[in-house]
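HUMAN:
Could you generate one sequence with tokenized structure?
ASSISTANT:
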Amino acid sequence: MLKILEDLVILARERKSNPVKDSYTNKLLEDKSLAKEKVLEEINELIGAVEQDTNKIHEAADVLYHLIMYLEKSGIKIEDVMQELNSRRR
């Protein structure tokens, strides 16, 4: 299951190194403002979906995808985030 998230991070890093023309992923990785805008948009859509009990899984997937792209664009490694979360365990 977590392999899918790992694959998404790998895809983001590969696209940063080897951009693909007209790739939505590359658009997010090239434009931090767009990536930020999409994270905020998708979080709001997820909140709405949860409150209305519709499309929750779809919207949650969108949030994860866009958040990973935003983190990668911002130079924040998911490994560091996971290490921080691990350090908070009791």
